[in-house]
Amino acid sequence: MTEAAESREAQRRPNGTEVRHMWDCGRPNPALRGAGFPVLDDVRHSLIFAGERQAGAYNHHSKLTRHRGMFHAMWSNHPHGEDGPGQRVLYSHSSDGVRWSSSVELFPPMQPPRPNGENGLVLTAWRWVKYEGRLFATAMCNENIGFENPDGSEIVPQRDAGHRFLARRFFDGFCREIGENGPICPPILPMGDKVPPPAPAFVSLYSDDEEAMRLGRRVREEMCRPENTPSWNPPGISLPRGVDTLRLCEPTVYRARCGEYVMLLRDGEFSHRLYASFSDDGRRWSSAVPTDIPDSPSLSTTVALPNGSVLLVGNMVASDFDNAAEVRHYLRDPLVIAVSSDGSMFERAYALRCGTQQWRTPREEVRGRNGGAQYPSCVVENGILHVQYSMGKEDIWMSSVALACLGPDGGGSLNERGTGVRSQGP
Fold it and tell me: For 134-247, where are the E strands, in sequence order?
């Protein structure tokens, strides 16, 4: 690992755009274990779900929460691969984070599964919402309608070099109340007024009772509160555009010690940087600027702690920025935790989970899988950080580590002022 100062790029991109300095953790080296960051040893790794052909070898989009003494986990599941028509959402719970219940179908598929690249209805694990002391799981619903170019101005039926982004039509999501040991009512269809296309054999599995629909809309309103601004695209909030890029996605939001809201976003154009947008109220956001925070690219998430510190969890493993010859994903190994004392600068980083998935279902049979631990979702309780993630998009795991291990020299004061809260909601 080079000295932190050496990780600072020339503070402009090749096109002249100024780069905001937010990373003092040193330059990652993907050739080294842990990308050269200190590897955390005192970590508990617990398997939640092992993907396989019959139940679905593609498992991703982890979502974790803690409610009334129980861990609740959900994730997207499909037999053929990422975001294929007929994708559904599975669920498991645990009292201790070690022994997990057998998975159950939380949100049934809207249609029979079909291969990736075909059009059709898709459900994705979205958010946990706490409303009036009750816990609700939510799923996002969209229809794949083709592939679009970077600015979204043109859609074609098949993916090609100029149209590599999945084109989607989004509908209002679904929600379902969760009790101590799992779902306690049918899914509510839908949470709003945009109803997906008819699929009678599968829509019949969902409740369209008017009282349930009203509850679903109240849950959706709770999601839209500024303090509950989530990872993924917030409902009712348009993502800020980058000052020099056409496409940003997968935001995570936290409130810095100074009171300012910070949104970090993934760049879909492979600069291998995170972008940052800022807001005083969590509603009106500045144009997003490139930072020197490295990115695989992959989804990252943040945790704001009561003492003003912020944790950034993701695959911050890119060793080079703005390299036109590197239009690719890094391996998403390891899963990294970066620490900021105030939310403005990340000063140190650690490798939480190293290694890549040894797939039981061959990779070529399931589209979209790569690398190791990725797409984290976090909960902090009693001084412990719990992180759910997918391993190579096949298995679902949770890793737990004491906040004290993330302090300076592995023994700092992150835990001095009690437990933390997730920035992206309950």
Answer: 134-148, 155-156, 165-179, 182-183
Sign of dihedral through CA atoms 285, 236, 92, 382? positive
CB 383 within 8 A of CB 420: no
Across 58-70, b (16+ Cβ under 10 Å) vs e yields bbbbbbbbbbeeb
Nearest one of 227, 232, 133, 228 to 178, comparing CA atoms: 133
Q: Which two tokens stand for residue 69?
A: 């003494």
Which pTM was predicted? 0.91
Half-sphere exposure at residue 410, Cβ-oriented, CA atoms within 13 angstroms: 11
What is the C-alpha separation between 140 and 127, in angstroms, rounded?
9
User: The CATH number of 4-422 is which of 3.40.50.10490, 1.20.5.320, 2.120.10.10, 2.40.50.180?
Assistant: 2.120.10.10
pLDDT in tens, 169-224: 888 889 999 998 899 988 887 787 777 765 555 556 677 788 888 898 899 888 87
Q: What is the distance between the alpha carbons of residues 371 and 253, in angstroms, rounded to a whole number?
A: 25
What is the structure's pLDDT at 115?
A: 85
Measured between alpha carbons, how far is 421 from 51 in angstroms, rounded to an integer? 30
386-410: average pLDDT: 92
